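In the design runs reported in the main text, the only information available to the sequence generator was the tokenized backbone. The following block is the verbatim input for one such run; it is reproduced so that readers can re-run the procedure and compare outputs position by position.
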């Protein structure tokens, strides 16, 4: 990267063009701190993409990795004289205004397919949707799941890392509802205090009128070391207990190879694979799908087993199930 614009950089960025804001970070672990959050907000206002450049030895925290796997930002790894996308391994080059994909690249970058430096364990991710009433406390589903999987409730929450607040659902609720009232989306983080690393990313938004209430889309991820098998077989019972105590619209469980501390290095560790899907209602599935009735009588749910979390091929079953449920809804 050699070109700069004459514009002053913003929020500590190292380069600013019409298309991108570029920041160079040489840290062992890069987190979604307040400075990066400010840059993301400025990029959203200006129509730019935030491009975070790190050396190949850097790792991203889970909240920041979630950001760079979306459309808001790109993780650029500088490996000698070459660049590649840290989340995918695709080679990149500086085109004069941003880092872009090398159009004729046929292979992953060599650094991406090198052996990971950290032991590869497993990460259980539970993605769930909830429709909350206009007045009730938020955060109960994440708290209950974290207790069931780690033995402890969350210890803190906030919008950036390190987290600013001790865990208090009432305070989280007030913050989220204030953001939603102002027409925004509340994007928050919660962390656990148990023996296993647990991090949740929570999003709260308003339903489109005339519907009322708050929509939640959250992901809780728990890390397991190579000698600590994840509780795949226990998940249907866990979701059953959750649905008996809290509102729950749907939940997808998946397993991803990765570090037990939930950081991600810019190297290939394996693909996520589904375990099961819980959907609201007493439902039937396509032929060949196992299903289990869970939840209370007044708000039944159905758990569909999709696989053991070890084969990405089972995403085809996931898509088949979704097509069936949509066609029968």
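Verbatim output:
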């Amino acid at each position: 990267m050699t070109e700069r614009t004459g514009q002053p950089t913003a929020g500590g960025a190292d380069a600013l063009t019409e298309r991108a804001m570029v920041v160079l970070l040489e840290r062992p672990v890069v987190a979604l701190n307040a400075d990066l959050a400010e840059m993301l907000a400025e990029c959203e206002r200006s129509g730019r993409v935030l491009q975070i450049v790190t050396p190949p030895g850097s790792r991203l925290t889970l909240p920041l990795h979630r950001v760079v796997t979306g459309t808001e930002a790109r993780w650029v790894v500088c490996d000698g004289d070459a660049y590649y996308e840290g989340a995918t391994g695709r080679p990149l080059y500086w085109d004069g205004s941003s880092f872009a994909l090398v159009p004729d690249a046929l292979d992953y970058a060599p650094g991406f397919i090198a052996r990971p430096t950290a032991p590869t364990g497993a990460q259980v991710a539970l993605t769930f949707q909830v429709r909350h009433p206009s007045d009730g406390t938020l955060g109960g589903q994440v708290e209950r799941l974290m207790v069931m999987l780690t033995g402890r409730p969350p210890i803190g929450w906030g919008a950036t890392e390190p987290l600013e607040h001790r865990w208090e659902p009432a305070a989280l609720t007030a913050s989220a509802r204030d953001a939603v009232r102002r027409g925004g989306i509340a994007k928050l983080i919660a962390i656990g205090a148990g023996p296993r690393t647990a991090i949740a990313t929570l999003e709260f938004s308003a339903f489109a009128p005339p519907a009322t209430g708050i929509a939640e889309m959250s992901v809780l991820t728990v890390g397991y070391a190579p000698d600590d098998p994840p509780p795949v077989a226990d998940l249907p019972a866990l979701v059953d207990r959750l649905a008996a105590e809290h509102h729950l619209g749907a939940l997808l469980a998946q397993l991803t190879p990765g570090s037990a501390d939930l950081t991600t290095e810019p190297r290939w560790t394996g693909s996520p694979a589904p375990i099961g899907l819980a959907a609201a209602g007493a439902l039937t599935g396509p032929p060949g799908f196992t299903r289990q009735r869970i939840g209370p009588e007044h708000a039944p749910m159905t758990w569909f087993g999709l696989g053991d979390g070890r084969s990405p091929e089972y995403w085809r079953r996931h898509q088949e199930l979704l097509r069936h449920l949509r066609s029968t809804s």
